[in-house]
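Box 3.1. Reading complex inputs
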Amino acid sequence: MGLLRMHKGLAGQGDHPAAMTHTLSEAFPCTPNDAGALGFILSRLPCTTAPILWVQDRLSRKEAGRPALAGMPANRPVIMVDLSRASDVLWAMEDGLRCRALGAVIGEIWGDPPALDFTATKRLAMRAEAADVSCWLIRRAASPDLSAARDRWRIASLPSAPHPHDAQAPGHPRWALDLFRSRRSKPGQWVATYDRASDRVDLSAPVRDRTVDPRDGTVRERAAG
Amino acid sequence: MERCGNAPPDDVPVVLAREGQHGPVIHAANRTARIEGILPGSRVVDMRAICPELQVEYADVAGDHAALDRLVLWARRWCPWTVRDGDDGLILDTTGADHLWGGEAAMLVEMETQLSLLGLTAQLAVAPTWAAAWALARFGPVRSICGPDEAYFKLGPLPVTGLRLDDPTVLLLRRLGLKTIGAVMDVPRLSLTRRFVKAGLQANPLMRLDQMMGKLAEPVSSVDAKPVIRVQARLAEPIFDPTPYLPDLCEDLCAQLKQAGMGCRRLHLTVYKTDGDVSHVDVATSATTRDAAHLHSLFRDKVERINPGFGFDLITLAAGAVEEMQERQNRLDGGSDDDLHLTRLIDRLSAKFGPHAVTRPILRQSHVPERAEAQIAALADQPEEGGVLTKERPLRLLDHPEEVRVLYAVPEGPPAQFVWRRQTHRVARYAGPERIAPEWWKDRPGTRLRDYFKVEDQTGLRLWLYREGLHEDGRGGDPRWFVHGMFA
């Protein structure tokens, strides 16, 4: 359900079902060892039992660890591919996007390798849209330069919500989401609270004084850039 | 049965041994050893006491079976219907084939000659039924021939072990004084029926007799040889790169597979070099296939590993692990077969990056986080033992827990502050401890227990931190602290 809420909240998808197609998105965690971006991505994946193809390069695996099945929200099959070079990761992702049987393709690339240029992301985005498989690229320690990803997020962990029973313990995780570039909706910033039990993300505006944009979420706009 | 270069001389007692319940037992013995009194089935140490100069080799039972299976096909030269009989026999249905060899006696001589050319000793017999031939070949005279109406006379003098009964039944018959097959035949049928009414085929002399006399059917069901599916390309002059020939070879191979109704799981590409050497590349798929384009794509980065030498002029492509395969369509509109696409994707990834790079994690029943997850092959069946976790677990786990430097450690609860990867984290909130004791049946003695804390630092980073050991637990010095994972 979190997914549906997100889409409606972000782009007003009710009027534009064609824009619901899955595509390539990029996520930039603010610090390399922050797993908040991963939690956000997993909450946005389509709710199916199709396997996830998860491709990691060596440095991501060493620095940020491997995904732990026990911590995933839903017990869905994962096919892990452990590679060493970024070009291999891109190759494997592109090959995986030919296969419609996959639920999602997630790639993790460390830094800014030369192989990951505009052309590579463009290929990934077009393949993802052709196969209608959602594809996420997690880029740690990277600078958000030129890319063809349709949505680009910057995600950081925030201090969590208060625990309902224990004042000392961290409660539901909170993330600061920054959609800084998007082709199909208006960029914006949110604070997301994730409820692990119901696998649902609640968005709220960041605590900041600003005027409410009347067009926000109602008119589909193309973001600049 | 495979011939080795150095056969032992006939005057040395040699036995083959296999593993028994209480040490090795004799599997087979040569003639000298049998004369010395060595019995198959007895223990090797006992037989060494009887015959100290005994030479013992280990038997290759599986290899013997495979060799016998090949011999079954080789024996098709005499008749078209052959089958393996137990561990040490062949049954040939020579009905209508013997006159081609000049009669049954001449056929047996021919068989014995050909088998001795292979280096095999054979005991041969011709009889109307399987059971009669079995008994005559093992207990009857050399190259005995039994007509349809002389079974009683030919088989009567043979011992009751020729009835293919299990040991307790043979012992029982001996105790009853029935030592030959003829004696069992002379017992009234009603008495035998009454005595062995509940016995199965292995323990029922009456049914075995009926099989021998042809009253109970025992058909010979022949096996078919697996088709050898192989294509080749002969080249006019030596080349160095087989790539241009691969698509055609794959197409031809898949056409052959399709005609046979088969699919393959392995491909062997062999090039025969002009200097007499051979180089080959193997690829494997995770599901049976006969799709030429897919098979060709598996060779994409592999053909570079062929060492062409001075060039090669013959390329062969052979299908291995050939299995039956049916075309399936799982959607009415004739759309794509999703499972098939997934197996092909995994084939491509495994072919390019190696099978160890493509794995599938599954949950196992263990509380130790490193052991709670296992890696299996991507398309293997999941064993049904997935543990049910109720505790919250982190989303990421580090392969090796990283030690942190702790400031202001307190005996209970997490540290107030710690340094991880040169950054100072101040613990704002925490949950825990969750104590995970070592698994004593797996861990080394002296392994310390772990107290896990979920801590959140001042910036909102949520980490899974653990303290290894306790103060004064007598298993090393002060407890150490490690970061093991990250929460979302």
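In summary: The CA atoms of residues 414 and 453 of chain B lie 7 Å apart.
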